[in-house]
TrEMBL record:
Entry-linked SUPFAM superfamilies: MFS general substrate transporter
Signal sequence bounds: none
Cellular-component GO terms for this entry: membrane
InterPro entries listed in its UniProt record: MFS (IPR011701), MFS_trans_sf (IPR036259), Proton-linked_MCT (IPR050327)
Pfam families attached to this UniProt entry: MFS_1 (PF07690)
Localization of this protein: Membrane
Protein name: Monocarboxylate permease
Primary localization class, coarse: membrane
């Protein structure tokens, strides 16, 4: 087999490593064959990394709490579309910076990125606590920009680090790491709702959550140990975007990711507000985000555990299509029971779609020192949709809460017929999600062909 060929089966056969709740000793072998075939033994504190990701993902997903509070209480002079730009910009920065931070992670700057993220996170939340009611620019600068930068600095490196310690069980390891974010998001929205709508109020509530988050980040900084990158010959590819996109399976996977992420975060940001406007009691609506993220914990672990038996490309295709179908079902929700069922199914499917992406990209990597860059570039392209999809959905929603229009934007691209008076929707399954499923299957086939050609060339 040639030096640069991709052998997914060989990667999956290596390093049969058990997971534990404490630290484990693991062996990491270079993706390229060496004469000595030596392995390095390193200690991986899974609990610490998982706790850090719990914090990070909690703040990303918890914007749904802010969205509801801003629309109904704090930024009442602005439309849902205007407010949606706050979350859209935060989401854009969270993903788009991965193109830079992923490359820095591959070069060994993980701890530097984490320290920068802690400082920016503390600054963002503290300035948000000083903002004034109906002062849009203050909220936008502190939460949209500064917090977006803070999350973006550490998001892709935090996902990539697990891939340095696991090979055959890489998907399961990354799924557990990703589940940490959903687990934190179960608790964080409940805490924010109780603080914002109780005697503590918005400003002090933000300060309390900031203190908790920064404390967890500092603990993570103290307990996370990273594996130094292997030294490689300088290839001159300091900006490898074009180089990676020439890899056809990777390019097709990026296209599939763009289709999958289109409309993905609409329900995350607007679920609580949607439930309240549909007559669900506020006390119950407050828990919908936690219910959704509890289901997401399962969705981020179970599908990843099935990867060795079904295949990661097949699973991504299945859950991309399923996510589109579930989004269409949101239009039929009219009571508390329907909202809970939707939150459970959406949480499971979205958790699977999000958590399967990083290990899929890791499987396409030629060596371990380019995993961070490949994941970062993938999220860089996906971030463009995150920037525009949420504000557009908010604009379609309007101040009169025309949920049907926004749901159709998030969940379907080709409407066959629409009876507005009876609110019956006859439409095709979400075209973008269906196309994403096809693209993931095509990428898997192309990767397989790439392996076979390399093997035939060496035989």
């Amino acid at each position: 087999m040639s030096e640069n060929s991709l052998d997914i089966q060989e990667v999956e056969r290596k390093a049969d490593i058990p997971l534990s709740n404490s630290g484990v000793i693991v062996k990491i072998e270079s993706a390229k064959e060496t004469d000595s075939n030596e392995a390095e033994e390193l200690s991986f504190a899974e609990g610490g990394l998982q706790g850090w990701l719990t914090l990070l993902g909690a703040y990303i997903n918890a914007f749904g709490v802010y969205q509801d509070f801003y629309v109904r209480e704090y930024l009442t002079n602005y439309t849902p579309g205007d407010i949606g730009w706050i979350g859209g910009v935060q989401l854009f920065l969270n993903f788009s910076l991965g193109g830079i931070t992923g490359r820095l992670f591959d070069k060994g700057y993980f701890r530097h990125l984490l320290v920068a993220g802690i400082v920016l996170h503390a600054l963002a939340i503290f300035t948000l606590s000083l903002s004034h009611e109906n002062s849009y620019y203050q909220v936008f600068l502190s939460q949209g920009l500064c917090l977006g930068f803070a999350c973006g600095v550490i998001y892709v490196p935090s996902l990539s680090i697990a891939s340095h310690y696991f090979q055959r069980r890489r998907s399961l390891a990354m799924g557990i790491v990703s589940a940490g974010s959903a687990l934190g998001a179960v608790i964080h929205p409940i805490m924010l709702n109780k603080l914002f709508n109780g005697p503590v109020g918005f400003h002090n509530g933000v300060r309390i959550s900031a203190g908790l988050n920064v404390a967890l980040l500092i603990i993570a900084l103290l307990i996370i140990r990273t594996r130094p990158p292997r030294k490689q010959a300088d290839t001159g590819k300091n900006f490898p975007i074009i180089h990676f996109l020439r890899d056809v399976p990777y390019a097709v996977t990026v296209i599939a990711g763009l289709l999958t992420f289109c409309g993905l975060f609409f329900a995350v940001f607007y679920l609580q507000l949607f439930a309240v406007t549909r007559g669900v009691e506020e006390n119950l609506a407050f828990y919908l985000l936690s219910i959704m993220n509890a289901a997401s914990v399962i969705g981020r672990i179970v599908p990843n555990a099935l990867v060795p038996y079904i295949g990661i490309f097949k699973l991504m295709g299945i859950f991309s299509v399923s996510l589109g179908v579930v989004m269409l079902c949101m239009a039929a929700v009219n009571d508390a029971a329907g909202a809970i069922v939707f939150a459970i199914f959406f949480g499971f499917c979205s958790g699977a779609a999000v958590s399967l992406a990083p290990p899929l990209l890791g499987a396409l990597s030629k060596n371990i020192n380019e995993i961070g860059a490949r994941i970062g570039i993938f999220f860089l392209f996906a971030s463009v949709l995150g920037l525009f999809s949420t504000p557009i959905a908010g604009a379609l929603l309007t101040s009169d809460y025309h949920w049907l229009h926004a749901i159709l934007f998030a969940g379907v691209r080709n409407v066959l017929d629409l009876y507005a008076e009876s609110r019956l929707i006859w439409s095709e399954i979400q075209i973008t999600m269906l196309a994403a499923g096809i693209c993931y299957s095509l990428a898997g086939y192309l990767a397989y062909r790439q392996i076979r050609r390399a093997e035939n060339g060496d035989s």
